[in-house]
Structure formats: C-alpha cells, structure tokens
Design goal:
By secondary structure, this protein is of the alpha+beta class. It is built from seven helices and 17 strands. The strands form four sheets. Strands 1, 3, 7, 11, 12, 16 and 17 form a seven-stranded antiparallel sheet that branches. The protein is globular. The two termini are 19 Å apart.
Length: 301
Amino acid sequence: MKQNTIALSVALAMFSAMPLSVQADSGIQPANVATAPAIPANTLHQLPWEPLVPPVTKTATLTSSSAQLHVGDIQGAVGAFALPADRGSLEITISSLVEGKRVYAPSVMVLDENMRPAAFYPSSYFSYQQPGVMSGDRLEGTLKLTPALGQKQIYMVIYTTSQDLAKTTQMVDPAKAYAAGVGNAVPNIPDPIAIHQSTGTIKIKVKAEQNTGNVMIGGILPMVQKEQPIVVGAATAPVAAAPSKPAQPMLKDTDEYFNKGIRDAVKGGDIDKALKLMNEAEQLGSTTARETFIHSVKGKG
C-alpha cells in the first residue's frame, strides 16, 4: 500500500509539480535531502558549472586551483556539473581514486532546474572498492536519477566535508587481494590506510536511457523506502508538451484498449507501466491517453 501511495504521488507530481525520481543502488540508500548542508543560492549560481552530456566519462582533477567551497561543514575543492534533463533516466557512477594512500571522500548534492536541493548522497554512500583489472583502489557509488519532463537540466555538486577530512579509509593490501583472488592462503599483513584530503581525482561516468517510465527533480522529499523511488519537487517547472502525433488518428477500439490499460495500471499501482502505455498510445496517434492518465492518477478515471 505504501509503495502504491508513493508511486501515485510521483505521477501526480509529474503533471503538477514536476519533480525527480531517485532509485537506490543495490539497496544502499541516499539520505533525506533535509539533512544535506545548506549552500546559499548566490554561492551555487557562482559555481563554474561544467556540462556533462551522456554518454560521457569525465575525469575531474580537483586541486587547490579548482572551485572552492567553505560553507558550514563543506570544505575544499568541489566539482560542479550540469546534466541534461531531457535524455531519460541517468545512471551516474562516481569514483574517487586513491592516489598515494590519499583520497577525496565525496558527498554529492543533486539540484533541480531551479537549483533547489533534490537528492543527497553523503560520503557513506560511496564505499571502498578493491582494485580490479582496469581500476585501482577507489571510493565509488552509483546514482540513478530520472529528471522530470519539462526541465532542461539538473545540477550535481561533488564536495567533501570537515568531518570526512578527519577520517580515513582502510584499503586491502594488494597481496591479500591477489591471494584471495587465486584461492591461496591470505597473508596476515596489515592493510594500508588512505588519508582523506580536500583535493583529489574524480571519475564520472554518465549513461542515459530513454523512455524508462520513471519521470520525475525539485519540493517535498518523503523518507526513502528500500528499492522504491523517492520524489523531490520542482514546483515551477512547466508541464512537458505531448509528443508529436502521426498523420492518421488512432482507431477508437485501439484508443480504448490503451486507455483501459492505463486505468488498470494506475489502479494496480504500476505508474511506470501506465506512463509507458500513455507514451506509446500518443506516438500511435491517441488524443485521449494523456487525459486518461491524469484523471486516473487523480482518482477521476
């Protein structure tokens, strides 16, 4: 019942408040955005926002010459990135590379089109990963976001905090990792420790997927439920225009088939399916599918 309520809230928000959907990665939960540190709006607007257009892999070197934030608990170099909101769902993998037993412990704040906090990933979200064939020791986490229709772009700030600068990360000795990998006895040797610092190297990989059905960044953030999307509002974003229609209108029987499917999906709490049916129907020439969807999620269908 709780999942259905959240899903209906997502759908209603899409047409009235236009928010962002956030999906937990492998059961690891983002934090309530209300717990994120406050960054003044004028400070955010002054950051040098670098565009990331998927698919893209970007290596950002954060140094003493990079943009800096010293606001509350935020201390040191930051990365500021603008992402398109019209490419469907975004899967963003952020890796902070361990270099010489030093590492930048990232936290991430996602902002809606109006630069209001929409999702918050503290440093605890980015877990230590052992080196692989093509990668070294790193702190890594994946963000799964679905920007709402009608927005042009969203924003992502990567920063570290004074609390994280006081911590360290325990790594795995390469000899131990190798022994475990080949099935040998693991040697009893101490693991190295990585010191946290205010600069570092961040690798960002962004992938986009069109027409996933979850359509939502930007106002009220409910508590995160495991494996459920969370909704954050963007109250001023406009409603997206309906897709262009083919030359021939849809047959009445076909139109009703899609409308019934939309109503049944909403009634069953499957908002993703209802959205996909609506999009498919409109591409085939339906002039009633969107109205059916809106009325259904509002309890009028």
